[in-house]
Amino acid sequence: MRRRWVLTSLKGKSVLFSGKAQVPKLTTAYETVKVVTVVLEIDWDSEQIINADFSLYSSVSVEFLRNIVKGYNLKGGLDSLLAEVKSRFHAFSQGAVIQALQIAYERYRDFRTGQLLKSGRES
User: Fold this and answer.
1) What pLDDT, on a 0 to 100 scale, did the predictor assign at position 52?
2) Using CA atoms in the order 56, 40, 121, 83, what is the torsion angle rounded to 10 degrees?
3) What is the DSSP string of 11-75?
4) Of 8, 34, 108, 123, which one has the fewest beta carbons inside 10 Å?
5) Per-residue pLDDT tens for 52-76?
6) Strand, helix or coil at 27?
């Protein structure tokens, strides 16, 4: 009963999910930001990413990734978004960004299907 109430109460609202991943050691990126965190704000009804943030040292990188991610619709999965990031974002932290995006997406999918509610985990 609680699951249905929570999911129904989200109509017309957005949800926030995050993921994090370690940057490869022995890179400049690792010296400044050891862990990349990705935060996605997702419109519950349309499943579109409406805002995003990335814990990267460079504001140019953050804005660049935000422009790629914003507007992406998660209904079809994450593959085309990850391919876009791989083809356009060539920083040392690329792998960590991709992994953090995958984790945030998996947490969102788990919540959407009720898995997070059953386990009691927080986003």
Assistant:
1) 98
2) -80
3) TT-EEEEEEEEEPPTTSHHHHH-SEEEEEEEEETTT-BEEEEEE--S-HHHHHHHHHHHTT-BGG
4) 8
5) 999 988 899 999 999 999 999 999 9
6) coil
Rounded mean pLDDT, 102-114: 93
Evaluate the CA torsion angle 62, 63, 68, 73 in order and state its sign: positive
Q: Rounded to 5 degrees, what angle do the CA atoms 118, 122, 123 make?
A: 120
Radius of gyration of the chain (CA): 15
User: The tokens 């926030």 sit on which residue?
Assistant: 16
Task: Tell me the two tokens of residue 112.
Answer: 């959407």
Domains in the chain, CATH or no CATH each: 2-118 (3.90.1010.10)
